[in-house]
TrEMBL record:
This is DMT family permease. The keyword Nucleotidyltransferase does not apply. Belongs to the EamA transporter family. PANTHER family: EAMA DOMAIN-CONTAINING PROTEIN, INNER MEMBRANE TRANSPORTER.
Length: 85
């Protein structure tokens, strides 16, 4: 994957994660925050499972690959949570 594609995917994913808070705000009159969070994670898990099965890409094997994956996830989550305020 080229560097610009990688960055574009990170930006799109971060936008999707950030937009979920606006959607949750719309759903709060109808369901509890914990239920909405659970639904959000279940939906994300189903989508990720479909993507992983469809793409049939190799999973991280080495510690370096897992470290890189964890760093991306941490910064992405911090970016989304940091943009709330």
């Amino acid at each position: 994957m080229k560097n610009y594609q990688f960055i574009a995917l990170l930006v799109v994913t971060t936008f999707l994660m950030g937009s979920s808070f606006a959607i949750v705000k719309l759903g709060l009159p109808y369901a509890s925050p914990l239920l909405l969070a659970a639904l959000r994670f279940i939906l994300a898990g189903i989508i990720m499972a479909i993507v992983v099965i469809t793409l049939k890409r190799p999973h991280p094997i080495t510690r370096r690959e897992w470290f890189k994956l964890c760093m991306i996830g941490s910064f992405q989550t911090a970016g989304v949570m940091g943009c709330i305020f």
